[in-house]
Amino acid sequence: MSAQDGRRAGGVAGFLRDNGLTLAFGTAFLLVLAAQAVAGRAEFNETLAVDGFQQVGLGEYVLSSDFAVDVTENWQSEFLQFFLYVFGTVWLLQRGSPESKEMHKAGVESDEEQRMGDHAQAGSPRWAGTKDWRQAVYSRSLGIVMGALFLLSWLAQSIAGLAAYDGQQLRQLEAPVSWTTYLGSADFWSRSLQNWQSELLAVAAMAILSVYLRQRGSPESKPVGAPHHATGVEG
Amino acid sequence: MSAIDARSGGRGPSRGADPDPDRDPDRDPDPDPDADADRGRGPARDRKSGRSGPRGARALATVLLALSVAACGAPASVRGDAARAAEGFGAALAAGDLPSACALLAPGTREELEDTARQACAQALGEEDLTPGGPVHGTEVFGRQARVLMEDDTVFLSRFDGGWKVVAAGCRPVPDLPYRCTLKGA
């Protein structure tokens, strides 16, 4: 980080500027989640009305397993995307993409390149300068956390999905199923796979399109004038 | 997730280690095409991509906590309410108090009964081949839906503003298909 990057403005305006990306996407997340709840409840109530069941209020729907499974099935796939991307880009390259490392850097790289152990610098995180398990954990912490969040949200999807599925089973005068049975069900895998395929498509599209296309000013893009074959260059 | 998503053992004597009628030897092998027609897809799912940030972790933790609490079991009072409604329906049938039994029917079930029989509910109910369910062996509740396993019957209920109502009664399991029920909604 350069000295210019490190300079922070004071006050509310400074806070908003320093955290604009997080605040904007965080706020949008909450708004869209609320909109999903409204739309999801309307759709759920249509189903209940057709079958002659009591419709539910917004508060009850937000606390329902039907809403929870619709939310968590998307969350798990997002964290899976990041987990695969973080680990995959250690070894997998894409010539010309700013999402890829340079072609000769495939792999975990040397301690010197990664500023680890004896090569840690003054501003390096403390665990990066160690040589024991702390370094091993910290050097993989981003992927580990993303993987753990994926597994936890996938578990949440399975629990909420089971409750929603069993509620639907009862509405259809069918017997509820166990968690283990649900894990092998078409409903569980349909929800999972349809999200995974979309995440993988998005990653593949970003990797290849960023080779040839540019977005002026975005760090996700190469500089507009960068050649197509330039790899690992961000704008 | 609703806090009332859960299953419970029965309050009466246990029928065995596995109360699931899917594995109950007392099966009716005759599938019911009408019941099959009741099947329908659940609410469509939201799905999408795009990158989310680590901000999701806090919300995820909240959801996981709620799910964990819910997974620990539904309030006994909720399961008890559903079981009592099923017992009340059976008791009304046993006593010949058909108006009371009708009052415990879900609106759609009552309407279907009257439309099919072209009679008032109490008269139509009296012509149905229904027997009192007897003691409750198990109750499962998911959201506003419940299944109550009784000695001589399986009853499906749903929770309305006026409490738990019988959606279907006189139900027998059919392998890989919905229950075949003597009394049910359209």
TrEMBL record, chain A:
Pfam families: DUF6766. Residues 102-118 have a biased composition (Basic and acidic residues). Residues 102-126 are annotated as: Disordered. Keywords: Membrane, Transmembrane, Transmembrane helix. The chain crosses the membrane at residues 21-39, 141-165. The keyword Hydrolase does not apply. InterPro entries: DUF6766. This is DUF4328 domain-containing protein. It comes from Streptomyces antimicrobicus.
TrEMBL record, chain B:
Residues 17-49 have a biased composition (Basic and acidic residues). Residues 1-55 are annotated as: Disordered. It comes from the Bacteria. This is Lipoprotein. It comes from Streptomyces antimicrobicus.
